[in-house]
Design brief:
The chain contains three helices and no strands. By secondary structure, the chain is mainly alpha-helical.
């Protein structure tokens, strides 16, 4: 008798306000991930980076990215 394959995913339930659920739905739509699980993982990853990366480095990266985007807008 074959054993059923188990999914690597686990369920994670969160009690939150209706406002928080709405904000998550907006984030999910804006980020364009296929699943809510992917959106949730991306949010967790982003939050975990903020604890590990110096805020000054993040600010410099954001500034450089803004410059590149402005340059692309001028070219296109």
């Amino acid at each position: 008798m074959a054993y059923p394959k188990k999914s690597p995913a686990v369920q994670f339930h969160v009690d939150c306000s209706a406002e928080a659920k709405s904000r998550f739905a907006t984030l999910h739509e804006a980020l364009g991930f296929k699943t809510k699980a992917a959106t949730f993982e991306a949010v967790l990853f982003t939050v975990s980076l903020k604890d590990k990366i110096d805020p000054q480095i993040l600010h410099r990266l954001e500034t450089k990215l803004d410059r590149v985007l402005e340059h692309l807008d001028d070219i296109l």
